[in-house]
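check these tokens.
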Amino acid sequence: MKRVIISVAKGLVGSVCLMSMSAGVSANTGVYLYGDLSANVAHAYSEKPTAGKWAQAADNLKLPSGAELGVGYRTGSNLGFEMGYSYLGRSGSHWVEQPSAGNTAGLATSTTNVKMQGFRVAVLGIYPISKRFEVFGSVGLFGVSYRSDTVANNKAFKVRPAVGAGVVYRVTDAVHVRGQYQYINTKLAKPGKAAEGWGVSNTHAFRVGLVYAF
């Protein structure tokens, strides 16, 4: 019986070692810092101005710049946690006055901008492909603060879910480069009086960044 137990133990240890070698595990455990830059696609909209004839401009869709700085903790080869502060950028809704019989002079424009920023917490599932490359998926929550430049009805705060996936290249054991895609449920509608209603769509974020592991 003792020989059987020893044989099973040896087999388990050998299997773990083989899995680690095949995956090329060289992951840092512990605390790391990260910084990401992003291009965020979000569609803002606003109420049509009341006086005159107006049409929404073709450049309603924006690619605002964004960034995130934060700290993470990696418990092992396959699990990590992150918390950071994220600026999701500014999107604009644009209206252009249309010519009419009584208005042939210079045409007016109306623009409403919506900014989004807030805190993010996430859980990461990580799979090392080799000693240099890893892929990961993330599930998290954003505490999003919304701010429009309308005179009134211009603030909101919501906690929204987000999911993502990406790839990491380990330049050294301490310095990593990563790229990822995130889908953030930022959709919000703020009805209001004339010229005060606004909203924004969900956000598609394309991010690149650096990680420094201690």
Q: What stands out?
A: The first helix runs from residue 2 to 23. The helical segments are 2-23.
